Automatic annotation (TrEMBL):
Entries under InterPro entries matching the protein: Methyltranfer_dom, SAM-dependent_MTases_sf
Coiled coil (residue ranges): none
Alphabetic keyword roster: Methyltransferase, Signal, Transferase
Protein name as it appears in the record: Class I SAM-dependent methyltransferase
Location of the Methyltransferase domain: 92-221
Entry's Gene Ontology molecular function annotations: methyltransferase activity
Signal peptide boundaries: 1-29
GO biological process: methylation
The organism's place on the tree of life at top rank: Bacteria
Length: 249
């Protein structure tokens, strides 16, 4: 009987492993199938990935080589970033996430506005993360926390943010639907999400087409993911300022 028991155990373990692997494979296949329903593909356009969300081709990410562009001396004049920050409805104790923080051009300016609050500088690219950490130390802004984000997550605790914002970032997100869901979870009830995007409607805005967005397209995508338009500011020189409020789901 002892010999039979050992034999049965030896047979049972591989069987359980097969069943577990089969279940994992099935779950993964289902996830991939769901993603396929959300996104389409096409031949990539100039600067594009060939991946399409709600009729919009997702742009290729501008890498860390674009750091000088983010910190150019004319950026305030070009974009009036201080006016954009003025319209973010910040309070001294606000908890904020700068998603796709890059070199921290906005991060550290916002951090000065929330001295009793906090700014999560969420970034995917390691070179930018290193820059953010160096600048945080140089400036002595202890209310900034640098966070390594993912392609489908921002790695910020649920229901902690008063405001999240993305500056010329949203159009490059590899998984916009999943990222909007992650941001929705991270926002407090009634929390806000601001998108700044170069205006696709204006041919005078000298930016590649796939790196611009129309207000109508932004609204379509965000309203499909649990956000409603709260405020639109049309006073910026070349960008849309669109603030959305988290809706209960």
């Amino acid at each position: 009987m002892k010999s039979l028991s050992i034999t049965s155990s030896n047979l049972l373990f591989p069987l359980l492993m097969v069943l577990w692997l089969s279940t994992c494979t099935s779950c993964h296949a289902q996830k991939e199938k769901n993603i396929d329903k959300v996104y389409a593909t096409k031949a990539p356009g100039p600067g594009g990935t060939g991946k399409v969300y709600m009729g919009r081709e997702i742009a290729r990410v501008i890498g860390t080589g674009g750091g000088n562009w983010l910190e150019r001396s004319t950026r305030q004049e070009d974009e009036n970033s201080l006016l954009a920050i003025d319209n973010m409805m910040l309070k001294p104790q606000s908890v904020v996430a700068d998603i796709g923080a890059g070199t921290g051009f906005y991060t550290f300016r916002v951090a000065e506005r929330v001295p009793q609050g906090k700014v999560y500088a969420v970034e995917l690219q390691d070179a930018f993360i290193a820059t953010l950490k160096e600048r945080k130390q140089e400036l002595g802004l202890n209310n900034v926390e640098v966070v390594k984000g993912g392609t489908q997550s921002i790695n910020v605790p649920d229901a902690t943010l008063d405001l999240a914002f993305m500056v010329d970032v949203y159009h490059e997100l590899e998984y916009p639907q999943e990222m909007l869901q992650a941001i929705h979870k991270a926002l407090k009830p009634g929390g806000k999400l601001v998108l700044l995007e170069y205006r696709a409607e204006d041919p005078k805005v000298a930016i590649r087409e796939l790196h611009k967005m129309s207000a109508a397209q932004v609204k379509k995508e965000l309203e499909a993911n649990g956000f409603k338009l709260h405020k639109q500011v049309d006073a910026l020189p070349i960008q849309h300022f669109l603030m959305f409020e988290k809706e209960d789901r």
